[in-house]
Amino acid sequence: MTQALQTWRIDAPGQTLVLGSDGGVPGALYWGAPLPAGDDLSALAAATARDVTGGMIDALPALSLCPEAGNSFQGQAGLVAYRDGQALYPRFKLIETDGARFVCEDAEAGLTLTFTFAVEGDVIAASTTLTSRAEISVHHLAAPVLPGPQMGAEILHFSGRWVGEFQMERSPWRAGVLMREARTGRSGHEHPPLAYFPEQGASNTQGQVFAMHYGWSGGHVMYAEELPDGRRQIQWGHATGTRRAGTQFETGKLYLSVSDTGLNGCAVAFQRHLRDHVVTWPHPERARPVHYNCWEAIYFDHDFEELKAIADRAAALGAERFVLDDGWFGKRDDDTSSLGDWDIDPRKWPDGLSPLIDHVASLGMVFGLWFEPEMVNLDSDLARAHPEWILGPADQIEGRQQRVLDMANPEVRGYLYGKISAILESHDIDYIKWDHNRLLPVADAAQAEGIYALMGALRAAFPKVEIESCASGGGRIDAGILRNTQRVWLSDSNDALERLRIQHDAALMLPAAITGSHVGPRHCHTSGRVHDIHFRAWVAAQRHMGCEMDPRELTDSETEVLTRVTTWWKANRDWRMSADILRLDAADSSVIAEQQLAQDKTRFVVFAGKADTGRQIMPRPLRLTGLEPDAHYEIELINREEAHHLSRREMPIKDGPLTVSGQILMQHGLILPWSFPDRMWVIEGKRV
Ligand code: DGJ
Questions:
Q1: pLDDT value at position 2?
Q2: What's the CA gap between 588 and 200, in Å, rounded?
Q3: Is 90 exceeded by the pLDDT of residue 399?
Q4: Which atom of ligand 1 is nearest to the CA of 325?
Q5: In whole numbers, what is the pLDDT of the chain averaged over residues?
Q6: Are residues 607 and 526 in the same domain?
Q7: Once rounded to an integer, what is the mean pLDDT over residues 299-320?
């Protein structure tokens, strides 16, 4: 017997979610643009009722927050679980709710499902918990399941690889399931846990868009399914089969955003949410320091005198943090040994790291150190002493000659905590670069839980130490890891051209303050390309800026350019590190452009990257966004001295600031001078 329909609404900036239940698991009656306050939700329920016809069963099985196979739901069920080898088909009843937490029970099966919703900044965070009286195996448990937009034409999801992160994929909505699954034990380069669901005609700056991000680092699954009856559902959960048997299971948090200003509305909601609600900043009073990392300068070849000379040059360029990368511990002369042996190598550092740290401090920089805690080489004292701490079979295929420690084992965590905290206690260390360079031999959710526990313990003991999440570049970027870290190493690619694209697409989730970006060597080590220092410097300056090359390779003129751009970055970081990144719709396919808009909207900077030679001879206008149509803005091409002599014609914008209305900038757009490819125009704007 069904009961009268009950309804609840959850409102966040830009979105309303309406849930309804007739006694069973609640389901979303509406998810979209904000509904008027006090709107009649029973009328909404009446308006959203659906028919049935021939070839169907006699009622539509509910597309609830956890669609139930036991309720004849013919698509992907929200829970797939087994007890004693038998599949479970529970039927849940809603037993308790306060409008944000919904507890549902199948008393006979001894199962309880709890759905939790919270508003965090501009996003809704949703998660599911399952408890069972007796031990069960859970193959799949979905975070609260929501309907996919009926007006959506396609699904934007992401793939990627080492030095090629955040590649946008476009798939049409069509019958059946689009499934994305990260089975590598990391959120991964291959399947970043992010998807956008634009309605027809939406672009970066216009139209209705829905977006979701699953905040979990251990591997996830997404199903975007169109059912035979035309309804669409979107599910996210941990990667299938990665949970150990037990009685309590929790999904990651699923973050929801809705926009009527194109992809940018959702991108900005996610950027702000990560920056202002997920990350805990150890030094909120301190500006983001300009970063220097020595990896591509010296690799494993540590020499105190060389590093001192490099630090001198880095500080002169404007660096404020110096990071010593891989190679300082064990007997690590290459990547075949010593992971796990977290003691300073006395061969390379006879007097320890303190002399370098002191030198770095004398230059006014703070110091950071690289670790890869979860990993072990078989050629290490740790592996020899504790082979039983290694995850997976003995005859597994290695990755980068290394194996993975079982982070679910408290003894392993205790060992790592002891080693890392000993280094942190005895040295003035401001920063850890926390790396993770191989895929798991067996993906296991307990591994990610163990990592969170270790990171959490270290964060509690050393709250002033910042952590960067690196996994061969951007292999572990998600809100789960960002609860304990403050920066991501977005990519091992320091190729400015590739980075321009990667940063642009990663901005659909990542704010500038969290996204590390470094000026690499003149000859890029991962692509072989040679890029001009202007381009390299401006691309790094788009995000949390740093350098990662031997600064002694710079010519005087390169040094001058890099110092100038770094000085500009510092002068503008206070407002830019909290600005919104708005991707621009470029009519010119050779242009990758964004506008960083200050929170108070009184100033902005446009980075217009030229990623290719244009199809047409002259640049097309570039439309700005998010400005006040009636306001006037002084705009200035701040790097106009970079214009090439083939840009032959006088243009007012090449001579100095112009004052233009917001409407002109947004409707006609800016026309920039002609340029070579692999260049960046930088335009500052201020409301007058
Ligand atoms: C992979 C990282 O992505 C690099 O930046 C560097 O830290 C190396 N590991 C060190 O082994």
A1: 65
A2: 21
A3: yes
A4: 7
A5: 97
A6: no
A7: 98
Instruction: Write the pLDDT tens digit of every residue in 210-222.
Output: 999 999 999 999 9
Q: Are residues 388 and 260 in the same domain?
A: no
Among 574, 603, 632, the domain boundary falls at 574
**Within 6 Å (CB) of ligand 1, which residues are found?**
295, 325-326, 370, 435, 437, 470, 472-473, 489, 492
Query: Which tokens is 678 given?
Result: 């692999």
CA 332 to ligand 1 centroid distance, Å? 13
Query: Separation of 525 CA from ligand 1 center, angstroms?
Result: 13
What is the gyration radius of the CA atoms in the chain, in angstroms?
Answer: 26
Distance (Å, rounded) from C-alpha 548 to C-alpha 323?
10
Catalytic residue annotation: 435, 492
What does the block give as tokens for 419?
């080693």
pLDDT reading at 1 higher than 70: no
Taking 60 as the threshold, does the pLDDT of residue 108 lie above it? yes
Query: What percentage of the chain exceeds 90 in pLDDT?
Result: 98
Question: Which of 574, 603, 636 corresponds to the end of one domain?
Answer: 574
- Looking up residue 119, the CATH number of its domain turns out to be 2.70.98.60
Q: Give residue 178 CA to ligand 1 midpoint distance, Å.
A: 33
Predicted confidence band of residue 153 (pLDDT cuts 50, 70, 90): confident
**For residue 286, is it within any domain?**
no
CA of 471, closest atom in ligand 1: 3
Please indicate, yes or no, if residue 93 is contained in any of the structural domains. Answer: yes
Domain match, 674 and 633 both: yes
Per residue in 601-644, pLDDT (tens digit) is 999 999 999 999 989 999 999 999 999 999 999 999 999 999 99
Which residue out of 437, 469, 477, 518 has the highest number of ligand 1 atoms within 8 Å of its CB and is therefore the one to mutate?
437
Whether residue 658 is predicted with pLDDT greater than 60 in this model: the reply is: yes
pLDDT over threshold 90, residue 506: yes
Domain match, 107 and 154 both: yes
Query: What average pLDDT does this structure show over 471-491?
Result: 98
In total, how many domains does the chain have? Answer: 3
CB-based contacts of 92-101 (< 8 A; 24+ apart in sequence): 92/24, 92/25, 92/66, 92/68, 93/23, 93/24, 94/6, 94/21, 94/23, 94/24, 94/25, 94/26, 97/8, 97/26, 99/8, 99/10, 100/10
Contacts of 47 (CB under 8 A, 6+ apart): none
Q: How far is the CA of 299 from the centre of ligand 1 (A)?
A: 9
Cα dist. 392→175, 495, 592 in Å?
38, 35, 43
| Residue nearest ligand 1's atom 8 by CA | 326
Shared domain for 377 and 230, answered yes or no, is no
Name the 3-class secondary structure at 685: strand
> In whole angstroms, what is the distance from residue 79 CA to residue 2 CA?
22
- How far apart, in whole angstroms, are the C-alpha atoms of residue 186 and residue 166? 15
- Residue whose CA lies nearest to ligand 1 atom number 5: 492
What value, to the nearest 5°, has the Cα angle with vertex 412 and ends 183 and 140? 30
CB 316: neighbour CB atoms within 10 A? 12
283 lies in some domain: no
140 CA to centre of ligand 1 in angstroms:
33
Tens digits of per-residue pLDDT, 351-385?
999 999 999 999 999 999 999 999 999 999 999 99
Say yes or no: 568 and 590 in one domain.
no
CATH number reported for the structural domain that contains residue 679 in this entry: 2.60.40.1180
* Interval 115-120 mean pLDDT: 98
Q: Residue 481: which domain range?
A: 291-574
191 and 241 share a domain?
yes
Location of structure tokens 């910042």: 466
The answer on 511 and 431 residing in a single domain is yes
